Amino acid sequence: MVRGFYSAAAGVFSQQKALDAISNNIANSTTAGYKSQSTMESSFGEHMVSRLSDLSDISSSNIGQGSFITVNGNEYTDFTQGSLENTGRAVDMAINGEGFFLVESEVYGPVLTRNGQFEIDADGDLYLPGTGKVLNDGEDTINLASGDFTIGPTGMISINGDEADTLFIAVPGEDSEIKSVGNGVFLCEDGSYEQAEPGIYNVIQGALEKPNTNIAKELSKIMAGQNLYNSCTQILKIYDGINELAVNQIGRIG
After folding, report:
1. In the chain, is it the N or the C terminus that has fewer CB atoms within a 10 Å radius of its CB?
2. Where do the domains of the chain lie?
């Protein structure tokens, strides 16, 4: 009975975390460059289950392996490229292909993002609202003294026809793992990133990459997850009722 109680409780916790990830995907269904996330469930604490009996033929036969609980050990991020949408704004940029924009975050330092919905601050620096300032190929801020600028496919910025700066288009280093530190913002855990080769990407000015979230799929997942969550809570109520009977009635003397 204890095994079943733990399994049902684990189902509640794992589904709650999965539902949180789905809800976050739906909430960011309009965030430029957002990449959908999901949880990865795995068993925890596997053990061998055996039969208890005075008969040797029965006791020597194992039932097999089992697990008390499942856990959401990791999160999976789908980096599939979203569709591109023209906006006509000069400060909007999208990457077609591989790579990320490099942005200096006040909290995490240099971070990677596909969100190119940039703005220009009072000092003339290009920045991503809520994250930080966009960095150039020298990992310095990009100052646009004039609003009349163009962005080439390689990320080169030209002002009045003259080359002014170049965006740093980053890719994670070999064997480098990146983790999400915000909605569509990622951090290389070992700080290992490098500049992308020009042939694997194109920077498109006046466009944004739409999130790769499939709303219909997310809604179906949230309904299935909610049903499983409710089932696990009902099982917990049943076990709680059985425990109450065991304590108050079966254990009563006389």
Report:
1. C
2. 2-78+214-250, 84-209
